[in-house]
Amino acid sequence: MSILIDKRTRLLVQGITGREGFFHSTQMMEYGTQIVAGVTPGKGGEWVLDGKIPVFDTVVGAVETTGANCSVIFVPARFAGDAILEAADAGIPLIVCITEGVPIQDMMQVRRYIIQRGARLVGPNCPGLLTPGACKVGIIPGNIAMPGSIGVVSRSGTLTYEVLDALQRKGKGVSTCVGIGGDPINGTSFMDVLALFEDDPQTDQIALIGEIGGTDEERAAEFISDHMTKPVAAFVAGVTAPSDKRMGHAGAIVEGGSGLAGDKIAALKAAGVRVAEHPDLIPEILG
Amino acid sequence: MKLHEYQAKQVFSQFGIPIPRGRIASSASEAKSIAQELGGRVVVKSQVLVGGRGKAGGIRLANSPSEAEEVATQILGMQVKGLPVRKVLVDEAATIAEEIYLGVTNDRSLQVPVMIASSEGGVEIEEVARRLPDRLFRVNVDPLLGLREYQARYLAASIELNRDLWREFIAIARGLYRAFQESDATLAEINPLVITDERRLVALDAKMVVDDNALFRHVELAEKRDIDEDMPAEREARKYGLSYVKLDGNIGCMVNGAGLAMATMDVIKLFGGEPANFLDVGGGASSDKVAAALEIILSDPNVRTVLFNIFGGITRCDEVAQGILMALQGVSREVPMVVRLTGTNETEGRRLLSEANMATADSLSDAARKAVALANERQAA
């Protein structure tokens, strides 16, 4: 067991013929992910990845022919909102948007719409998901995690890899890793993923990786103290970030006193979460 | 991207929001002639992208064109919170009966836009939130529907606005929401929205922040960016699509990913060092981007050592290694460097760098420890 993706995932790649889409499709396929189709408007009818994967002009066409049940999006930011809507309208239940730099207004409308359609969105601006040994959707390097019982959820990209790598070095395996993305408006929150891990029999404990900005960590802390029985360890990046400076992620803005790393750490500790001083310490905390 | 007050007023005005008559001036004599046109009594307002202009003496009333010239001379020669004043807005002075607050921003927890109104305008809204929280009223807006008339009416009634002004207020509120949405803003604010002695509503101040990620579809707004207000290094970084923030320490950092960049700074500090900057080379960093990033880091004279922390995913380690090698050819300054490369194409990346003489590290804490030691050594020397 795992959450959200496994061996039965039939993946569609939106933007499969682009530079990043193509590179990472190759990597996902090598990892063993069942890629069933690609979509690039205007390139329908072509075959890619050694002629194994058919390319379609539209998502609905790809779904009808291949039965794809998950889509990963690599299209440029200005087209990403549309790509998510297209996937949701085609009935895809799980949509993972890797693209960074999607305008906030686009995301607010898209999010509202896909909730009505009953689809789950992970991202945007996220590294995707990895169920070690079974399925990789996105750009998380496959060789830095092995199967196991730790659930990982993170707002960051590369910092997630850092933690996965640290876990693997200590011989600790992962059930599923979910990168929810660093944007202020995103599809899936810490809380959503924590709830899934709590219900997943394969997951025994959880590593949560947060960062400054917003209040998602605080809400996660509340959820943990009210609903979680499994132990959680955390790291929150940005203790040294100066307030009111933009640190890359649109989400990582300290707004008027709230959103500070210190407040998030305090909230998590109060909920019984053990917070690591640096990411390399997560494996020790998880024991 | 923040807009200046005069720029935000121009945008608001396009959405039917009444603003005072006025124009922008970059010299005192210009300010004088604008005051003459406007009939004498004016407000001269410094145009800098920081709050608290009034308290700093950057906003002043002038009763005549010659007084406007005098006041403009003073304001154009001053700095507001370290920023030199290059332009002043000369607005016709309004007679103020009451001051209202009206603003739209995004609520990150609810993930929808929210419009806020208060009868306590003219002071910082954070202060109102602290002192008089029951005077703040909000409506959550469905991004697919926009701000509806009944929502604006609810705000008008809540702040106890006199009924004769409701129609005007509702038009302003809906105009402000449209300005916010159609300009891809993350904040659009009128503080104060005043009721004049003539019973009219006028936006005396205007604030607007536009989502950088949406500037591609707002060429007219992108052109408004005031590059004079940015630090040169930060301006250079933006040109290459890097995100860079200068800090006060001596360990330069080049990291891929914002979260990892912050964590790297945190770990440096934890081991007793001080980061010189935040720098995220971004996803899929190409070698010329990496080279540009290194030049920006080394343009800071405080930098004693540089730590590269690259965890490849979408970024490929060999590309980064090539960029480092490329940049090293053009670098005049001898600065020791610590490199930690892991992830996609790491073997090739390490092979490329093995020829350059650099300290390598195999984990974040190892890299940070080595960088702190090198920086301390250099600082002492």
Q: What is the topology?
A:
The complex is a heterodimer of chains A (287) and B (381).
Chain A (H helix, E strand, L loop, with lengths): L10 E4 L4 H13 L3 E5 L7 E2 L4 E4 L2 H8 L3 E4 L3 H13 L4 E4 L6 H14 L2 E3 L5 E4 L3 E4 L8 E8 L3 H12 L4 E6 L10 H10 L5 E7 L4 H12 L4 E6 L23 H10 L3 E2 L6 H5 L1
Parallel strand pairs in A: 1-2, 1-5, 2-4, 5-6, 6-7, 10-11, 10-12, 12-13, 13-14
Antiparallel strand pairs in A: 3-4, 8-9, 8-11
Helix pairs in contact in A: 3-4, 6-7, 7-8
Chain B lengths: L1 E2 L1 H10 L7 E4 L2 H11 L3 E5 L12 E4 L2 H12 L2 E2 L2 E2 L3 E5 L3 E12 L4 E7 L6 H7 L4 E5 L8 H10 L7 H17 L2 E12 L4 E3 L3 E4 L8 H4 L9 H8 L3 E4 L4 E5 L2 H13 L6 E4 L6 H12 L6 E8 L4 H14 L6 E7 L2 H9 L4 E2 L3 H17 L1
Parallel strand pairs in B: 15-17, 17-18, 18-19
Antiparallel strand pairs in B: 1-13, 2-7, 3-4, 3-7, 5-6, 8-9, 8-11, 9-10, 11-12, 11-13, 14-16
Proportion in helices of chain A: 25-40%
Characterize the largest beta sheet of chain B: strand count, sense, and whether it forms a barrel: 7 strands, antiparallel
Return the string of H and E elements of chain A.
Answer: EHEEEHEHEHEEEEHEHEHEHEH
Determine Rg of chain B (CA atoms, Å): 26 Å
Radius of gyration of chain A: 18 Å
Described by the principal axes of the CA atoms, the overall outline of chain B is elongated
